[in-house]
Structure formats: C-alpha cells, structure tokens
UniProtKB/TrEMBL annotation:
InterPro entries: GH (IPR017853), GH_1_N_CS (IPR033132), Glyco_hydro_1 (IPR001360). This is Glycoside hydrolase family 1 protein. It comes from Companilactobacillus suantsaicola. GO terms for biological process: carbohydrate catabolic process. It holds the Pfam family Glyco_hydro_1.
Amino acid sequence: MIMKFPNDFLWGAASAAYQVEGAYNEDGKGLSIWDEFSQIKGKTKHNTNGKVAVDFYHHYQEDIKLMAEMGLKAYRFSISWSRILPNGEGEINQAGLDFYERVIDELLKNDIEPIVTLYHWDLPEKLQTKYGGWENRKLVDLFVEYCRILFEKFGAKIKYWVTFNEQNVFTSLGYRWASHPPNVSDTKRMFQANHVVNLANAKVIQLFHKLVPNEKIGPSFGYGEVYPLTSSPADVLAAVNANQFNNDWWLDVYCRGYYPEKILRLLKKLHLDFEITAEDLKVLKAGKPDFLGINYYHGGTVKAPDFEKVKNQKDFDKTDPYLMAADKQAASPESYLFESVENPYLDKTNWGWEIDPIGFRIALRQVYEKYQLPIMITENGLGAFDKLEDGKINDQYRIDYLNDHLVQVGKAIADGVPVLGFCAWSFTDLLSWLNGYDKRYGFVYIDRDDYSAENLTRIKKQSFYWYQKIIESNGGKLEVK
C-alpha cells in the first residue's frame, strides 16, 4: 500500500522562539516571563534557560539552508512578543521586526512556506509585572495590538498564522501546577486566565479576517483522545467526561463560541467559575478559525471515578457533594469526572509518554467530525536521548515513530480528513522547556549540552535523510507495516 497525500501537502517542521533563538537581550529585545522563570533555582533541569538556546538568531541562514536541502515545504516558528514590543506595549522595536522579516524572506527565497505562531508561551515580563499577565482583561487589547503590528507588516507574505500554541498546556502548567510561569498554583485563577486567553484568541481572529481576508488563521491545540479502560458504561461515561474536560473545553470555544455545559456546571458547583458577560459570548461566537492546528503526542485512558474516595476528602462538606466546607475551595474537578490510568496496550517514550500512532488517526477523525475545519498538524515528534558517535546520530527510533504516525495521518486523509500539512517537532534540537538539552527532538543535532553552548555545530541525523526521502516522494516512501 502506497500512502497518498495531497499534491500541495505541506511537509514541514516546527520550533518556538524561546526554545531556539537565544539572543535573549540583543538588539532591543525585552525579557519574557520565561527569561525570569528559568532563573528560579530548581524549576528547570540543571537550571537551563534560553539565553543562548541553539542560537537560531545568529544561525538562521545556516538552518534554513539545511531546511532547503531537506526539501522542507513549510517551517512553523513563533515570534517573540518582547522582541517586537520590549515592554509588551508602546514603542516598537524595529530591529525585532527586521529580524523576522529576514527569516521570512529567507524561507520564501527557498520555497519554504512560513507558518507563524503569534504566541508560544513567552509573554513579555513587563506585562506580567504591570498587569498580572493573562488574568487581566487588559491583555486582550494588548495582544490584539501586538498582532495588528504583525498582520500589517507581514500579512502579504504569510498564508498561515497560528494564534496561541497549546493554550490548554500553558494555562494549566502556569496557573494550576506552578511548573511554568507565572508559577501559580490556583485552579480558579487558571480558569479565569484561560477565559481571557479565549477572548484574546477570538478578537485576534476577527482582526485578522479584516486585515488579511485572503489567508488563514487558527489556534494550535495539544489534543489527545481519551479512551475508556473497559466497555463498562461507567468507564465509557468517564471517557466522555475526560474528552469534554481535556479537549472540548477549548475546542468548543474556538469553533462554536461556547463552553461545554457539563463542565461549566461542574465548575460553578465547585466555585471555580468565572465571569462570562453577554459581550464575551458575542466575541467568542465571532472568532471562528479557518483551520485547527493539532499538536499530537499522546492521549489518555480513564476509568470511572471512585466517588467514595472523593466523598471522604479532608474537610468535605457532606451536605453538598461538590463543596469543601472550610473555605469553599474545590477538590480536583477531574475527581468528579474520571480517574486516569495506564493503557496496558501501549509502550512509552523515555519520558513516560504513551506511543499511540492509531490514536493519531482517531484524533484527526474525531476533531474533523466535530468541527468540520481543515487541520494543520502543527506538532508531532519524539523526544529521546540521542548519542553522537563517530560524528553521526543513528536515530532509527525517531524514524520508526514518525513513520508510524505519518502512516496514520495518510489513513486519516483517506478517511476524508482534510489535512493541510505536517510540522514535525522539531527541525533542529532545541531547549526543552523543563528538561534542558538532553531531550532531543530534531532532525538536526545541535552540539551542545545543559552546561555549554560553545560549539553549536549542526549535524544531520539519520532521520534528516529519511524525512528528505519522505518529502521527495510525497509520502510514497513511508513503510506501511
């Protein structure tokens, strides 16, 4: 069986500004919340940071030359807000605009489609300090103004724009689990901040449709289908709940303009709800995207929650099964909906992420059937410990991973899902947000570690040559097992 992909399929790769650029304080750039957060001892592996990263800022021509050699059709990258507006607002840093224009022009010169992400987690630090970041509705208008600058500057050159990368990840890790900036552990504040981001997303899409009416824009979402552990109706219901909580909570807002009612009711009972005005609803309804970006790494498996366990939580108010007596703070919302378990049929990566290629096909099918929008795969890849031996990197495990996932993409396309392209994560190795430089994703090895960035030599891995053949054959060289 030969996989058939559309003739105009965008075979690509991806990155994010903080993870690759470096030059954190050069040419007028302001600090981001990640520049500050990474200075907190113990938050990142070996206290690694993006001050140098893999220095794409100074190596972009070399890297794009390698992209062209590979035959890449698209490159997804993010623009750093604080490189454009050092304070997040006010005076524009022309040097920042000039840098991204050079990158875009170099890509276009090499027939590589630039796909621009407007926000990949690196909020200007000044906006966090001055306004409290995404918890403040003021950020909506500030984000819109930042995007306006980019639309007016680059709108004629860029066909595909991504608003937010993995809103579900940066809001939960930043505001609930305190493992990303702004280092907050408060579930209610997380849902409040998330709503502000939803408003910003919708307003920017509206602005884009006015300023750049002939091109496409959409958010990029970290999606994973959730399975029931067994065919027990209680487990099936738990999986329905989990998909609503983990996926539909964001995608319904993006595509339909409203939150899933079941989850919204639960949050109200848990006193985790947030203000939704009549004007908010109008904004959300008017911000429908042109496509959905899907980042796929893994899904999950759940069983029915143990309500006895929930009921016996400390300080639980027996008169109302949703309230905590002491301070009306909620127990975990998930505990009323599902309990996560391991899937006995799936292997895992070195970082404990389940490997589920068929789940990719399921995810693409489910997302398209629900929302009827074209899909751009904006991330998929394998983080691994790559070893440089005799000047070479044999990463057959990455080839196997990507091959198996791309086969399922091809099958989803055959099923009728309109997939615009596939952006592997990532083109070069880069800084893993919390895991330093040991967790490598790239087709191109960067010769650096957690302690030294003196070398930064680019070395093509075995997967580089494999992906080159896949692109050249438009997927025809994929191995269907």
